[in-house]
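User: Fold both of these, please.

Assistant: Here is the first one.
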Amino acid sequence: MKKLDWYILKKLLITFVFVVGMFEVIICVLDYADKNDDFIKNELSLEQIWQYYITFIPFIAGLLTPITVFIATVFVTAQLAAKTEIVAILASGVSFRRMMLPYLMGALLIGFASFYLNSYVIPDANKFRISFEYEYLKDPFYNTDKHIHLKIAERDSLEDYIYMYRYDVRRDVGNSVTIETVHGTKLIEKVTARQIEWNDESETWNLKRWQNRKIVNQKEIITEGDDLDTLLNLSPADFGNKERIWETMTMTELNKYIKLQKSRGADDVHIFQVEEYIRYMSPFTVIVLMSIGVIVAARKSRQGTGFQIALGFVIAFAFIITFVLARAIAEADSMNTVLAIWTPNIIFACVAALLYKTVPR
């Protein structure tokens, strides 16, 4: 790298950190003002509030990284253009494409750092943040699902399925339970129970008023009783609050959960796949938006840098709208999930290619 590259890269990274910090301060102040009544009502100490915002700050930083990178790029490049530094760079024989090299390096550095943080660091912080919000800031969760069907095991050629009419998360009790073991299309064993209850000490399930019907040598054997302890590939967490649970999962945990839900035949797998694809997409979003930022702000404008920064905000706002719509379409499973998630990048990459033709040479 040459001195020019270090000069641009240094200005870019410093401005990026400043923009992120500025947004963090504004958002945290507004968030505190909004939640202050809840903090007072729950008699939270300053230490508890401080711990909450320690985990809230990286979450917001990860969420805003693509947009803050874009704004920082527009600001830095507009300043260079206003001081005719870009004209001097191009006049010295450096091509515009070569001038974009430090921007690309900055995008790669920020993008992959963001990927690591969003995939492994921020999810661990979100575990505390989200549990804090549901304990002190939101209404208690009640499972309202009915007619719950889950695949809980697969061994050799046998598959186990469980059905519950309803599950009470407050007492960890399920009602009207059926556990079936199937071989191909044949029902091998069927256990029914009035209730199923979780035992924290033994970490087992207890069946109440149960009956077991099993086919052995083409004969049906029926046994029944009042209580039966059993181990199942199931836990109370499977019936807990799944809202935003993907935000608390590292990439490793997310992949394992997707695999587990696929094996169970769950119908909400695509929601977690959306989160996975977004994490992989984010570094490329940083590159695309940074490219647009350089191209938009590189030309010296008679309206001044304020106009270019305002134009940058307009483009950033357009990207946010496109991304929100794309995510909603992906979560609704209205089109191919990968294509839906990558649509904003594809659209704005085409915009960058068109704008590139207008840059000063």
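And the second sequence with its predicted structure:
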Amino acid sequence: MIDPALWIVFVGTVILLQMPPGPDSMLVMARGIGQGRGVALFTVLGMTLGAGLVQLPLLALGISSLVSASPMAFNLLRWAGAAYLVWLGIKLLLASPASLNVADMKNVRPLAAAREGMIANLVNPWPITFMIAFLPQFVDPNGGSVTLQLLLLGATQKMTGVLVLGSYAIASGSIGEWIMDRPRVRLWQQRIAGCFIVGLGIRMAVGGTSR
């Protein structure tokens, strides 16, 4: 198994790497401010635990390595992720004042929020690429099953993601409670968040790194 001291170093490093804003955190903040803390937290669960149910087996079985090794497959995934982010951003940009009443904003089902977060993370190729490049650095070939070590490290990364993105969700949800009572501020927040998310999608499409 993994050396406890090495695991602690891994936890600290991966938290620091997850803290800078990226597509996932921007979407979580937009959800927190627009739909509230609960919806943002379910979005986080989709991005981390939900996506992990797909990514971790792929990582352990080596299938994801084949995807990252194929420029065509990687680019297709990157473009799909970019298109999805642009679509989410445009939805925020086109939101009308009439659609931003409190009843509609709160009427977002938790499972729908989790599903959207899961899709956003899965179609972004950078999380799985990061896992492929980073996690093996902490694997001890003489420490038992490499597959089990990768699964443990991957699960740890997803749990730290819950903590980091969950902090974004809680903070943005608190701001959202103040914004909810101010329709004009809420509308401009949606538009600004939409611009940021569209910009991140374009950045991803042209090959910039994202987290």
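Confidence is low (pLDDT under 50) at residues 99-106.
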